[in-house]
Design goal:
Blueprint lengths: L3 H23 L9 H13 L3 H47 L1
Helix pairs in contact: 1-2, 1-3
């Protein structure tokens, strides 16, 4: 079982990964977040195994991490929607040119 300090370091490292991925995504660059979801789940479960006082102290870190993930998710969905719109427009233009 990881210690509070190890969990803090792991959660902070994941937050940095997500922040860096968010920056890449905003700049329309490729992003790889390898196995981030299971790692976040594992950290959350490990926090639950800590002493109650330590677990309470970890809450702000977890909330911040989840907020970063939510922001990433929203921006990713916007990017996907943009791509879908561009593809739909290209198909429509191609169809109009063929008619």
């Amino acid at each position: 079982m990881p210690t509070k300090d190890e969990l803090t370091a792991d959660i902070n490292a994941m937050a940095v990964e997500i922040t860096e991925a968010l920056t890449l995504l905003k700049n329309d660059e490729d992003v790889e977040l390898v196995d981030i979801e299971p790692r976040v789940r594992a950290a959350m479960e490990a926090v639950g195994d800590l002493a109650p006082d330590d677990a309470v102290e970890m809450r702000p870190l977890l909330v911040s991490l989840l907020e970063k993930m939510e922001e990433f998710s929203l921006i990713l969905q916007d990017k996907i929607n943009e791509i879908n719109t561009e593809e739909d427009n290209a198909r429509k233009e191609e169809s109009d040119e063929n008619n």
